Amino acid sequence: MSRKQFFQKVGQTRIVPISLKIVAVFTVLLLLSNFTTNTINLLLSQKQIINLNNTIMVSRLKDLYSAAGNQYQIFSFNGERQTCIEALKSVSKKGFDFPKSFAAAIDRQGNILFEVYADGTETDEQKIFHSQLDDAQKPENVNSGETEQQEKKDYGFFDKDALARINSDYENGIFDGSLNFETEKGSYFGVYKYQEDWQCYFIRGESRADTNHSTFVVLAVISLIIFILLVAFLIIGFKVFGKILANVKKITSSLYQMQQNQKLEIIDLSSSPNDDITYLAASFNSLSSTINNLLGIFQKFVSKDVVAKAYNEHQIRLEGKRRNLTILFSDIKSFTYRTETLGNDIIDLLNVHYDRVIHAVHENRGVIGSIIGDAILAIYGTASSKKKSFEAVESAWNITRLTAQLREKMILRRTEIEKERTLTEAEDRVFKAVLIDVGVGIDGGNVFYGNIGSDEHMTNTVIGDNVNSASRLEGLTRIYHLPVICSEYVKNEVEKFSDKYTFYEIDTVQVKGKTEGKKIFFPVSLEEGEPELKTKFGLFETALSAYYSGDWNSARKSFKDCGLEAAQVFLERMGRLNAPDGWMGIWTMTTK
């Protein structure tokens, strides 16, 4: 399987497939079972091998014992002791099966008649005799410890404890048996028998290292066979488990994708078997459908960022903080008239309108803060603050454009009806009521954004002067007969990000409840602006400059020449008067 399938992560937690765990446990148990069983078998077999070797060595010791009797008779006849010993060594060598097989004859004091190993190492009386001669010629400064070790090696049986044991048995009338002993070549086990003629114990032994080596060779061969079989079984097991657990893999892959996408979906179970895993997945699908329905309902009543946070944190807390956001406020003009005319049908009209408006807000990454009757409050910058004012202006013009398209459809519908008949007075009132027009105000700055209320009921809201200012700016659209009005904050932020919009200064006003004047602007898209609009606003800006400076006579002339509806506001405000004393160029609003 691929690395991705085996090592997916949810957060920082590594996800291990259940099939891998099952195979891993199965492999460990299989290995433990095989190695434990075979180790026990080998240990038991080793014991049997030792017993069998003892039996063989007893048989060969009998041959050596018989040869010893015969050679003693020969020695008694011809007196050639060394020749007889060499003959006994030759008989001993014929019975060696392993590299360190051992045979010896020692007297009860531990003196060696002869000893011989399968690797050719030999010691007999003649060699000991020559060693003794060499000993007499050793320098006086030879280390005494080295001399003792040499004597122990050359002049007597290496294992004094073993010699003491068989001597003790001899005293008790036991002249043969098994024997564990040490030699200069390691640990041995063997058999012995006392020979009266030579007055020696004849011993045959096998090295435990040789026996263990054979055991380890067998263990290695068995381990290799187990490993090969294990690999074969694992390959078969992976294929079998892969088919059995294919449904689990499919379900976990779906769940992993949901976790990555942060979205609950329905798992496809069309080709799944009817087992308990499929039942669990079907239960999950049922739960997923329920949660998605609840989440969809929840999302319709609160903003998207609140839904996303609740989904990720699994809770909603009463919390909030000051943030730099842009606020858009949109309101339907002459709403009272429309309500009186349409009655309950106003709800249907609002739903048509808001379906388009909310889409325009979401399309530009805004969130709906609240819907209050005919007004909507949208917030920009909750996810990212880089483009928030630009996105708000884009939404404002989309809302204005969509509302104009709806009016055009109503007008077209009236034209079609009037081709057939004249509208009644009631129908005319309804027609005028459905010709929705909106104003949009935009401002921004530091505001409080978060959840307020109690644990029983809470709402997501935005609070601050800039929120109220956006509402006041929307109200000014009715006065200046402009679809969109924004603050200097919005103008400056948009111009830093994009040159798509030109901002024409409209006025400097002091909204109700404030003590300072605030410049307001009309954003116009360079892509969609009318060619003559630039000329009109050029004259308007000239008039506005004269108006600010107190030269109202020049201002009146330029306002009349520009041909904009917004200019009528200034003409009515100035009348035929001159600028009052102490004129600061700021108009104070007396209404909200």
Automatic annotation (TrEMBL):
<dbReference type="InterPro" id="IPR001054">
    <property type="entry name" value="A/G_cyclase"/>
</dbReference>
<dbReference type="InterPro" id="IPR029787">
    <property type="entry name" value="Nucleotide_cyclase"/>
</dbReference>
<keyword id="KW-0472">Membrane</keyword>
<dbReference type="GO" id="GO:0006171">
    <property type="term" value="P:cAMP biosynthetic process"/>
</dbReference>
<feature type="domain" description="Guanylate cyclase">
    <location>
        <begin position="326"/>
        <end position="474"/>
    </location>
</feature>
<dbReference type="Pfam" id="PF00211">
    <property type="entry name" value="Guanylate_cyc"/>
</dbReference>
<feature type="transmembrane region" description="Helical">
    <location>
        <begin position="216"/>
        <end position="241"/>
    </location>
</feature>
<dbReference type="GO" id="GO:0035556">
    <property type="term" value="P:intracellular signal transduction"/>
</dbReference>
<keyword id="KW-0812">Transmembrane</keyword>
<dbReference type="GO" id="GO:0004016">
    <property type="term" value="F:adenylate cyclase activity"/>
</dbReference>
<dbReference type="InterPro" id="IPR050697">
    <property type="entry name" value="Adenylyl/Guanylyl_Cyclase_3/4"/>
</dbReference>
<protein>
    <submittedName>
        <fullName>Adenylate cyclase, class 3</fullName>
    </submittedName>
</protein>
<keyword id="KW-1133">Transmembrane helix</keyword>
